[in-house]
Amino acid sequence: MSGIVEGLRDGFPTIITLAGAGTTFWEKTVQPPGIDGGEAIETTTMRNVDVRTRGPRHLYDVTPVEVSAAYDPTAYTTIIANVNVNQSIITTFPDGGTITWWGFLKSFIPESNEEGKQPVARITLIPTNRNSSGVETAPVIAAGSGTGA
Q1: CA pair distance 106, 122, nearest whole angstrom
Q2: Do the Cβ atoms of 31 and 89 come closer than 8 Å?
Q3: Are 26 and 72 in contact (CB under 8 A)?
């Protein structure tokens, strides 16, 4: 069928790039940023007759990004230098599409190391939606090939 674009068939590879960190971890799983419109605004009054009413909020939020990643312990210095630093972060999807957003590295928590398993850490990135000048900045979305790479 012409004109129909297929979605992603596989989540591999999805990559996170922090402007200030370079390659300090290697993604195993990535939960990309989501969009949340927030709780509904209650609009019910004593004049309602049958049902409660509500409405949508005007603003939306960008949700935190969770990553499970392999890491090199020599990267601790770079990771510490990037904790709580507002910076440009890019999520790159398998089809080459990107979401560029502003946020910070909230946490880097290694899981228990054990024989026979690659050491991994849980990484949480928090969207700030403000650029380095403090100006409100929504995510910038660039389409990929759309081929379901």
Answers
A1: 11
A2: no
A3: no
Q: How many domains does the chain have?
A: 1
The model's pTM: 0.89
Q: Which two tokens stand for residue 25?
A: 């971890």
Residue 102 lies in a domain: yes
CA atoms within 13 A on the CB side of 97: 19
Distance from C-alpha of 114 to C-alpha of 15, rounded to nearest angstrom: 25
pLDDT in tens, 75-86: 899 999 999 999
SS3 content of the chain, % helix, strand, coil (to 5): 5, 40, 55
End-to-end CA distance of the chain: 18
Q: Is residue 112 part of a domain?
A: yes
Q: What percent of the chain has pLDDT over 70?
A: 93
In a domain, 5, yes or no: no
CATH of the domain at 68: 2.40.30
- Report which residue type is found at 132: S
Is residue 120 included in any domain, yes or no? yes
